[in-house]
Design goal:
Layout lengths: L1 H8 L5 H5 L1 H19 L15 H14 L4 H14 L1 H20 L7 H10 L3 H7 L2 H7 L5 H17 L11 H11 L9 H15 L3 H14 L4 H10 L4 H18 L4 H12 L5 H5 L6 H20 L9 H29 L1 H12 L2 H8 L11 H22 L26 H15 L7 H16 L11 H20 L4 H11 L4 H13 L6 H18 L7 H12 L3 H14 L4 H6 L6 H16 L5 E2 L4 E2 L1 H16 L5 H12 L6 H12 L9 H7 L3 H7 L9 H13 L3 H18 L6 H25 L2 H7 L3 H5 L6 H26 L8 H23 L7 H4 L2 H9 L2 H4 L3 H10 L10 H35 L14 H16 L3 H16 L7 H9 L3 H5 L3 H23 L1 H7 L7 E3 L9 E2 L2 H23 L4 H13 L8 H18 L4 H17 L6 H4 L10 E3 L2 E3 L13 H5 L18 H28 L4 H33 L53 H11 L11 H9 L11 H10 L21 H33 L3 H26 L9 H11 L4 H5 L1
Helix pairs in contact: 3-4, 4-6, 4-7, 5-6, 11-12, 11-13, 12-14, 13-14, 13-15, 13-16, 16-20, 18-28, 20-22, 22-23, 22-24, 23-25, 24-25, 24-26, 25-27, 28-29, 28-30, 30-32, 30-33, 33-35, 34-39, 35-38, 35-40, 36-37, 39-40, 43-44, 44-49, 48-49, 50-51, 50-65, 51-54, 54-55, 54-57, 56-57, 56-58, 57-59, ...
């Protein structure tokens, strides 16, 4: 432990050194001390930084070992004596160490015991003189060095007083003036190579000694010589380095001389230069001279804070509104500013001259002492010192001198121009001149950052820096990791801290602004916008001068904006230009706020921007993005509309970006980012930009003629299909295209819009009203179509092909619906097809001599080669079941064709050609005449090419049509086909664009005209019209317009056939689309619809459309009412066409007007508009009797003892119905029950039908076997059958009651008039129990008898209750937009549009009952018809045979069910018969009376509804009978 303590006190030596002193210890100590003396022979005792081992430490350890007893004093004394002789400083070092040991032994308790050893050690040292100078008196007395301590102390005081406190008076007369004369001569002689500081210092020493000169006076003369000859500063600074003087002495001399000069009014410039040179040479310390300078730092900081507060106060007054006369106020303000400026200049001049610290800083910068200036600058707030013009100018001169070499190197002037050459500093201690860009980055950029906004003092320097930087930035290369060199990024700091703020301090310098733009435009907009943001929002608020400038700028901007009108554009534009040349950010911010508030300012403001600089335009783009990025509410009117400020700003964006060259990257990226964040409301901006810059408008606002023109070629679309002329948007369109491609935003924006379109309904659920959600959906859809159409016009196919994903990727990876995917890929497919067609044509030698038929063959061959791979890529993206009904080639054909492929708008070509008048006149020049002639020829040539193209397309379709639709089963050849066609093709595309709506209508007609196999035109139209309620309810506003166009197109076709029998016979008779009964065998003839039955069908369709639209009008829901009126307006040319239906619609419209007035005014305006248009077409509406033959309804048969008897004799001598008449009913189509239910449930229903048929056949077989084996009494069988029937009937009725109650609870509130027949007679429908599943026929053409879909009883189909339950659960309430997928929602409508007509007519079935009286439960009914078809005897016999066998099986099955029912509920069959007869009698009595009363009245004048409502309310007990 003792050894450890000993080791802890030694660093250079160890305890072993003292133990083995004689052997090795002494030698080790001697070697160590001599080593230290050898390292620094001049000053061995001085310690060096970060050095622990030195001479003092070695001596301290040696003496400590003696004191502690580790080394005997006798052994060490010879060594100490010898050491004093080794070096003169050793004795002094020993005394210094002894002083430390004296302090330790006298103050530390544990070392007091060594005090005696220390005293003895002092006595052994032979250094009494040194000890007397440095040791304490008490220690000297103890050691016996001083005998009388008191006397020694007194003497010591006297000596110190004489040395330090007694002033020594020099008698200058005793100094010889010759010495000073010689000194001055030596100091101011010419400096040559022979005159060196070393030689002069020797002369000075000789003069001081020889002439007894005062050293301080000599020093003063040296400083004065330096002051007079600062260009020789290198000589004098070296001389002063050798002259024995301290920094404090020099500072005293200079400070005294400076104050003397100030008092006497002498020029102090030389003194400050001398100070700067000495500080730069490290002869004079800043801390020593700084205390002699005035004023105090605190007073300077107070002045800065006061100036800052004044600036903030001025800025706060900007927003104060003055009620005084503006012009007088302006003049007074101008005078005040000028006076204030003059006072500021005078005050600043005096302040700078009297501030010694500022003058010193100026001197430091002039001599190039950059680091020492920054040392002083750190004592004050940022940019405070450089804000004084002298310092700023001095720093600019220093930068000029530093940048001169590189500037002359990279920025050469023409030979005839000679620029001002800046001389370099002749000072090796000054900053090194820049000869390359790295030097600029390391030397000049820090100076520019320190100068900050006060670089405005020297605009010439700003030009130099910008030009050098521009050359450097163009040479910057991007590394492999995307990183550039330091210059690229550090110059951004210079722009942020110095160049842009300095521009704000200047007065209208557009040249400098353009110079900055030429350099800053090398950076991408991301860097630029960051700079603009800091410039506008941070930098302008950090400096007092910038705050003042900004306040004055805003005052001027407000003054100008108050006077902006269309008439004052020119002076206002000049004023705005001057304001924005140097600090555009605050001005644009204020202008944009005004534009958001007053949209009528958009035009004048945009026109007033014509004098802006390129930099100002770029800042304007940033300000627009900044305002759009603010967290402002974008919806207004209780979340029902887009905020007006956003609409105004969007319109402003489109206008200003079109008129001026502004970088579009920022605004386009902003829209893309908003779409990524699932915010589609900002698409309004993109829509305006594309519309005004690209000249591509949406197709929704086009007229019918313009839409027809859009079906033609490129030239016709350009001339007649758009409002805007292409020449007005050619340049802006190219700029927009380049911005999209350079920023890689063309295809991403399209894909983002497509994805947002699919999700906008679900992501905007925070909106409380569907009106806004629908508007956002429409905006997304319209903008996507508009943007895509623009891209397809301006982007080449090669560029598009490189960027657009494949169709398979679009459908799968991009999660895009088929309608959008094919919209994007359609131009590529068309280009591929045309390229292949041209290639095949070129392969023929006589390419130009090819006939039209040969061209068609080549075109078909090209289609096969191009579309086969595409079909293969599409097939996996849809379910296999889809392709069972429809071939993928048809799917691709439908989605790739356009209107220009189906027909040529000949009338539009003729119209445009006739408009061209090439005849020369006085007003037309020859150039214009030639242009018109060329245009006419081009139109005629395009029309010819278009006709050939359409013929080729029709030839291709004619060849492909046979494989489009497959025949799946004999009993259902067309229904699933139509369903798939509606779901995957027709409905998604008819609401995509207005042009697509027309295309869909034409495409259906084309399918009919082509006589496409296995496609029923009649079923297709029936599915479209029979129930459009939910389609209408699920549409947005624009979709309603498009759907109306689609309905109008189809109605034009339907009504064209309805107009005359000639048209019908020519275009429909014997067409596959009008087959009503499809035969399984190819040898049997099919049944077709005749003209009169077709008229009945059209009447039914009109009734169904009326009923659906009335339901929407009475729903009370905003969306349904609006969409219904929009559709009525869209189809008013063809609907309503019947007077009684028009009256019903008119009444509902009047109710809407009454209910919505002063409540929802937009609905009121819509209804009022339609009401006026409806009244205008009333004279052209025909009565129902002219529309079709209205059938007369005979009285219903009465039921007596289970059999029906006809209570009314045949009128007009008509014969009684026969079995042949029953078979020869009006047009029939074999339609499976899946037509009336969901398509997805079809397979399940088919399985049930098969099981039922198996059970029926099995039960009949079992019964036959039992009868053969064991005879049973007929009465017992009848009894058992009755009991089973009663059980089955009661159970079915119970299930029906439960189902109806559930349906009522789920169904929306039904309209009072929902089940009206609108002037038509209504028939009670009954099930046809005796018909089999194969013979159950759903007549699309059954006239108005089957008008209501609610009249079908549960027994109409074995799956009827399940189907209706599914329908009612899906139709509960209105269908909101938020809960639909577009195609699926339309499919749900399509799956319910065709309702079964029920069964055969009661009158005709009566004859059948008389022939088959043993079938008591037959309820087959068929509507009466004035026109019946004739059947052959063979067909009648086959039908009778099939019906008898099937009815027997069905009857047996029903008997068993009735027996089971009677057992379960205990009711007899007679009871059920009686109740059923009573219900029927009530219904027939009311119905017959209603029909008889209404018969014979004029249908045009008779108010069906009023009479119907009155009778309806008189017989409330029959309401449920009619509905059930």
């Amino acid at each position: 432990m003792h050894t450890a303590k000993m080791a802890g006190s030694y660093r250079l030596f160890t305890p072993e050194t003292w133990k083995n002193w004689d052997k090795s210890g002494k030698a080790e100590v001697v070697q160590m001390i001599k080593h230290f003396l050898k390292d620094d022979p001049d000053n061995p005792g001085l310690s060096k930084p970060n050095q622990v081992k030195d001479l003092s430490r070695a001596l301290y350890e040696l003496l400590s070992a003696i004191l502690k007893g580790h080394l005997r004093r006798d052994f060490a004394r010879p060594l100490l004596t010898d050491m004093i002789n080794w070096h003169p400083d050793i004795a002094s070092q020993l005394v210094e160490v002894s002083t430390l040991l004296d302090l330790e032994t006298s103050t530390i308790d544990r070392l007091n015991k060594n005090r005696d050893q220390f005293i003895a050690l002092l006595k052994s040292l032979d250094a009494d003189k040194l000890m007397k100078e440095r040791l304490e008196i008490e220690t000297l007395g103890e050691a016996g060095i001083v005998k009388n301590k008191k006397n020694f102390h007194t003497k010591q005081i006297k000596v110190k007083t004489k040395l330090f406190y007694k002033q020594q008076k020099f008698n200058l007369l005793r100094e010889e003036t010759e010495g000073y004369a010689k000194l001055i001569t030596e100091l101011n002689q010419d400096i040559t190579d022979r005159v060196t500081p070393s030689s002069i210092i020797q002369v000075i020493r000789s003069l001081i000694g020889g002439f007894n000169l005062d050293p301080n006076r000599v020093l003063d003369l040296i400083l004065e010589s330096l002051e007079c000859r600062p260009e020789q500063h290198q000589f004098y600074t070296k001389l002063l380095n050798q002259y024995p003087c301290e920094s404090a002495t020099i500072s005293e001399l200079l400070g005294f001389k400076l104050n003397n000069y100030l008092n006497s009014g002498k020029d102090t410039k030389g003194i400050y230069t001398t100070m700067a040179l000495l500080i730069q040479a490290d002869i004079l310390k800043i801390s020593d001279i700084y205390i002699w300078l005035t004023p105090e730092d605190s007073s300077m900081i107070e002045d800065y804070q006061k100036e800052e507060n004044d600036a903030k106060e001025i800025a706060s007054k900007v927003n104060v509104v003055s009620t005084k006369d503006k012009d007088k106020e302006k003049d007074k303000e101008k005078e005040r500013e000028e006076e204030e400026k003059e006072k500021d200049d005078q005050r600043n001049h005096e302040k700078y001259n009297s501030n010694q610290k500022i003058q010193l800083c100026v001197a430091l910068l002039k001599v190039g002492a950059w680091e020492h200036f920054m040392e002083i600058s750190k004592r004050f707030p940022d940019f405070y010192l450089v804000s004084s013009p002298p310092i700023g100018q001095a720093l600019c001169q220093l930068i000029h001198a530093t940048i001169e070499p590189i500037y002359r190197k990279v920025c050469t002037l023409p030979s005839r121009l000679k620029g001002t050459v800046v001389e370099l500093l002749n000072n090796p201690l000054a900053p090194r001149p820049s000869y390359n860009f790295n030097d600029v980055c390391t030397t000049i950029f820090p100076m520019l950052s320190a100068l900050g906004p006060h670089l405005y003092i020297d605009p010439g320097l700003m030009y130099k820096v910008l030009r050098v930087a521009r050359v450097a930035l163009k040479q910057v290369k991007v590394g492999a990791d995307g990183v550039r060199n330091n210059f690229y990024y550090e110059f951004l700091d210079v722009l942020d801290e110095a160049l842009l703020p300095s521009l704000s301090m200047l007065d209208a310098n557009p040249c400098l602004a353009e110079e900055i733009w030429d350099t800053i435009k090398i950076y991408p907009y991301q860097h630029r916008y960051k700079l603009y943001g800091r410039w506008k929002n941070e930098t302008c608020n950090q400096h007092p001068m910038l705050i003042k400038y900004r306040a004055r700028l805003l005052k001027k901007a407000k003054f100008i904006m108050m006077r902006i009108t269309k008439e004052t554009i020119k002076p206002v534009s000049r004023g705005i230009g001057k304001l924005t040349h140097n600090n555009p950010g605050p001005v644009f911010h204020y202008i944009l706020i005004q534009v958001q508030l007053y949209d009528n300012l958009i035009g004048p403001v945009v026109d007033s921007f014509k004098y802006l600089t390129s930099l100002s335009y770029d800042v304007l783009g940033y300000c627009i993005v900044e305002i759009l990025s603010e967290n402002k509410d974008r919806i207004a009117n209780d979340a029902m509309a887009i905020s007006p400020w956003l609409q105004s700003l969007s319109s402003f964006c489109g206008t200003v970006y079109k008129k001026y060259i502004i970088d579009l990257g920022g605004i386009l990226q902003f829209v893309a980012n908003q779409l990524k964040a699932e915010k589609s409301i900002d698409l309004l901006i993109l829509r305006e930009i594309v519309q005004k810059m690209g000249g591509t408008d949406t197709l929704e606002d086009l007229t019918s003629e313009q839409l027809d023109a859009m079906c033609g070629g490129e030239l016709l679309r350009r001339e007649a299909g758009q409002y805007q002329q292409e020449r007005n948007t050619k340049r802006s369109s190219i700029r927009l295209k380049e911005a999209l491609l350079e920023n890689n935003l063309a295809i991403p924006l399209l894909l983002l819009m497509a994805q947002q379109r699919s999700s906008v309904v679900y992501n905007q659920t925070e909106s409380p009203h569907l009106k806004l959600v629908g508007k956002l959906y429409d905006q997304c859809q319209d903008t996507m179509v508009q943007f895509g159409s623009y891209l397809f016009q301006v982007v080449t196919i090669e560029e598009l092909n490189d960027r657009l994903p494949s169709i398979g990727t679009l459908l799968s990876d991009c999660h895009i619906n088929a309608d959008v995917a094919f919209f994007l890929a359609r131009p590529l497919f068309i280009h591929m097809l045309n390229s292949k067609y041209d290639e095949l044509r070129r392969q023929d030698k006589g390419e130009k001599k090819l006939t039209l038929e040969q061209k068609k063959l080549r075109y078909i061959e090209a289609c096969n080669e191009v579309f086969v791979p595409i079909v293969s890529s599409i097939r996996p993206h849809f379910s296999i079941k889809v392709w069972e009904d429809m071939d993928p080639s048809f799917f691709l054909t439908f989605w790739t064709l356009t209107m220009s492929d189906l027909e040529v708008p000949l009338h539009m070509y003729d119209k445009e050609i006739k408009k061209i008048d090439p005849n020369p006149s006085g007003n037309k020049r020859k150039k214009e005449t030639d242009r018109l002639l060329a245009l006419k020829e081009k139109l005629q040539e395009e029309e010819k090419r278009q006709k050939e193209h359409v013929e080729r397309v029709h030839a291709r379709l004619q060849q492909e049509k046979d494989r489009w639709f497959m025949l799946r089963a004999a009993r259902s050849p067309k229904n699933d086909t139509v369903t798939a066609f509606l779901q995957l093709c027709l409905f998604p595309r008819c609401t995509f664009t207005a042009l697509d709506a027309i295309y869909c209508a034409k495409f259906v007609k084309m399918l009919h005209n082509l006589k496409t196999p296995n496609f029923s035109t009649l079923i297709c139209y029936d599915r479209m019209y029979c129930d459009i309620t939910y389609t209408v309810a699920s549409c947005t506003e624009q979709e309603a317009h498009r759907y109306a166009r689609f309905l109008l197109g189809t109605l034009e076709t339907v009504m064209h056939w309805h107009a005359s029998q000639t048209n019908y016979e020519k275009e429909c008779a014997n067409y596959p689309g009008f087959v009503t009964k499809y035969r399984v065998s190819r040898q049997e003839a099919n049944d077709y619809v005749d003209y009169e039955n077709y008229r009945h069908v059209v009447h039914k369709w009109h009734y169904k459309i009326t009923k659906a639209l009335v339901t929407c009008l009475e729903s009370g829901d905003y969306i349904q009412i609006r969409n219904a009126i929009l559709i009525l307006q869209g189809i008013i040319q063809r609907f309503p066409a019947i007077s009684n239906l028009a009256a019903v619609i008119e009444k509902r419209i009047e109710k809407v007007k009454l209910a919505e007035r002063n409540h929802r005014n937009d609905l009121y305006v819509l209804a009022n508009s339609y009401s006026g248009r409806l009244k205008a077409i009333k004279p052209n509406i025909m009565p129902e009797t002219e529309f079709h033959i209205v059938p007369k309804r005979p009285q219903e048969a009465k039921v007596v003892n289970g059999t029906q008897e006809n209570t009314s004799a045949p009128s007009g001598g008509e014969s009684k119905p026969t079995a042949e008449m029953t078979e020869s009913k009006i047009v029939k189509m074999i339609v499976s029950d899946s037509t009336n239910g969901d398509v997805d449930a079809k397979d399940e229903k088919e399985d049930k039908d098969i099981k039922k048929a198996e059970i029926t056949s099995k039960s009949s077989k079992d019964k036959k076997e039992n009868l053969e084996k064991k005879p049973i009494d007929d009465n017992e069988i009848k009894k058992e059958d009755k009991e089973k029937k009663e059980k089955d009937r009661d159970r079915d009725k119970k299930e029906d009651r439960e189902e109806k109650s559930k349906r009522r609870s789920k169904e929306p509130k039904r309209s009072k008039y929902e089940d009206e027949d609108y002037g038509e007679s209504e028939r009670d429908e009954r099930p046809s129990g005796g018909t089999t599943e194969r013979e159950r026929e759903s007549s699309v053409t059954s006239n108005t008898s089957s008008t209501s879909t609610k009249m079908e009883p549960p027994e109409a189909s074995p799956r009827g209750s399940k189907r209706r339950k599914t329908e009612h659960s899906s139709k509960c309430g209105r269908v909101p937009i938020l809960q639909r997928c577009h195609a699926v929602g339309l499919l749900a409508t399509a799956a319910t549009v065709v309702e079964p007509s029920g069964s055969l007519s009661r009158n005709k079935e009566e004859g059948s009952r008389r022939e088959h009286k043993h079938k008591e439960r037959s309820k087959s009914q068929e509507p009466d018809s004035d026109v019946s078809t004739k059947e052959t005897k063979k067909e009648k016999k086959e039908r009778k045979r099939e019906r008898s066998s099937d009815e027997a099986a069905d009857g047996e099955l029903k008997r068993k069910k009735n027996d089971e029912r009677s057992k379960s509920n205990g009711r007899s069959d007679d009871d059920h018969k009686h109740r059923h007869q009573q219900h029927r009698a009530d219904s027939e009595e009311y119905h017959d009376r209603y029909v008889n009363e209404s018969r014979g009245k004029d249908h045009r004048d008779y108010d069906y509804e009023r009479e119907y409502e009155r009778d309806y309310e008189k017989h409330p007990s029959s309401r449920h009978k009619r509905k059930n």
